[in-house]
Amino acid sequence: MSISEGQLNTTENHSQIPGSFGKMKLQSWLNKSLKVDMSDGRVLIGSFLCTDRDANLILGSCTEYINPKVCGFNEEPRILGLVMVPGRHIVSIHLDNSQGISNDDTLAKKTMDAT
Amino acid sequence: MADVQANQETYTVPSPMPSPVMPFLMDVSFNWEPITSEFFEAIKELKLGELLHDDLFGLFEAMSAIEMMDPKMDAGMLCNRGREHYAYSKAIELKILKWEEVSLKEQIGIMDTTWSCVVTWLDGHSLAQTVFTNLYLHKPHRLGDRSLKAFCVAIYKLIDLIKDFVARGLVFEEEDFQPMVYGYRLNPDVPEVRSIAMLKEVEDELNRKKRQLVDEPELEQDLNAVIARIRFIKLMLQAFFGLSKKDINPNSVAECTKLLSLCSDLIPVLISSSSRSCPPHYVSEIHGPVMVGFDPLVNQRLLPPTFPRYTHIKTPSEAYKRLDELFGRIRQVSKVCSLTSFHAALELMLEVSSSKPCIVSRSIMQLLFLPQCSRAGDTINFIDAIRDAARTFISPPVLMPRSGLLSNPQAKEYLECFLGHCVRPFSNLIQLCGHNRARQREKLAHLLEDFANLQDEAERVDAFLHSLSKKCENARPHLACFGTWVLYHTLRVMIMFLLSGFELELYSTHEYHYIFWYLYEFLYGWLISSLSRADSFLTEQENLNDANRKQRRNKSKTKKKVRPYAREIMLNQALQNMCGGYYKAMVAFKKDRKIPLPHPEFDCEQVRYDHRFAPFINVLLTPPPVQYNEFREMTTALEQSDSRDLYNTGCKHFHQARSILETIHNPDQEVNDLLRIAKTNFIVLKLLGTGHKHDSNSPPDFDFSLHHHFPIIKI
Lengths: 115, 715
Fold this sequence. Notes:
By secondary structure, chain A is an alpha+beta fold. Chain A is 33% helix and 36% strand.
């Protein structure tokens, strides 16, 4: 998790109120995978890029999954790319805290090992 | 038929896209931790409008995100899904889709809707949202109904042919045409001849059925409608096959246009019988009536997430009318292959282009003029065409038979080299006629660079040949022959460039005056003088030929003196006068404060002027570009004069234009239109000259409805 620690440090320098706990938490989640359940039963998984006061969420490299229990039919997941989810349509948010699985991390490790 | 059926399993349309799963998601298990309440708590600390993001991510990137749950952007929304979409096989299984014994009325409906889809596709929509919403087209070979099967296979063939025309014509842009086929295989392995034979068999079979009918007028009419449709697609397919042949000759083109005329004859029958089709399967709120066998959303998932959601499919009668227009245009462009001279072909292509033809006719026009379409491979023919063009234009002594100049090896080399260099600009000019009107403008600007280089070379070749011809006996001077010829084309390109700005509505009214000034003061004047020069050269050559003939045969034949460019010169004189009239009227309008001007703080006329004439100013040497300060110097005097005088002189210009146009023999539609414009503007300016509406500040209106470039002034 050295990378996310580094992020935390750099972002701390930029944040206007360094002591603000909520913002620090949000900063620490940046670029991590989020799973967002939407009000119409679809599930979006993508990396957390941006948010604002109204919980409008921007996810990068986003994939859309259908929840067959809610929608009544099943379909293959679909790649959407960059997506903005309006806050009012968010039902729940999950954070992926499994360690060292994101491609970036393993790549970073590999390159570190190589050097 | 047997071979087709034996192979039918291989025709299955492959699943158009691999399932879109991101690679790193496949072998990764997530450890999800709920953070909903934490998250909603944390964002409360953000201020209104404050964005929390990484350094590398900004508002600009955020703008390109698609908004979920916005029905216009979110293709996956429930309202955009509607219901489940059945793949072909499943639809058959569930008996939603009949694949045998499709009733005649349904066949009429399916065929008509398919044509609507084809026409919509030709308007620049994607195949996935138009033609391939027809489920029968997904697996045409599984179809049990023979007439529908033959029709579907023929549609495949047609789409493939049209795609081939467009791809080889090389004049399409993304706004004209969507070549994506989304993984559908367009070319089921039925040879072209077989496809036509299938249609023929079906037609015969239906005709037999018709003869067996006794006293069933309703059924007979339905049968007639289906027969007409089969016949129509058969003729169209034959015509398009003919046009797509690589070794095309004027005879086969004439054959194809005959077939297209037969197609056009069938159109009224098709339109009137389309009311016999079965009613739509259901009426969707968004997509309108949906015919049986169609599913507007079946390919939705093949489209990129930000694709336009709905395609408005045309009605069958509209579609048939559009096809009729297409056949008419193809017949018009096919005249190009019977034209032998380059100039005549260029004129025809320019004329066709000004009617804003569709991409299919534009592509066919290119292919018919340069059939090999490997423009490089055709260079030898093209050099000959260009040599002919230069010869007919101004008959340069060096290109005349038995010219003594060519005995000089260096002269020969220079000439060949020059003609070789002509190929690219002139073939670009031909190709440009095929592009859509908006793209033509930018291409004209680039073309000027090529012509500037050519002009330079032409002058040097002329100078060399002239010095050589002085030494020869009894030779005509070779002064500025090629130069005049290239200059003529350069000027035409310049004029086309300036005029296209009117057609594309690029100019504001307060800019009109210097555009018209440039046309009036320079371009048309130079064009006329280059034409007159060519005219006198040709007459000179003609006299020389006559003299030779008389010497040889001693036979005096009084030939009527023809001035080959008389008509073109007159037309351009008229246009020059009209531009003069517009220019003076614009200056007077400005003086009377009738033209809304931009806020002076944000306005700089020189910047606009330089921008409008940038392609001239940056590249051209001959003709010399006119800079802004020269424009100011030349025009300030005129701008001092009284507005009424200006209206009156403008009025005289239009009068002059009118009297020139009236003397043109056999006026075509354009001349008649120009005549009407000149007459109307003459009256308007005359009224203004008497002080009519002098005090009103309401801006004049410029009505381009009669002509793309020359407006009627309305006050």
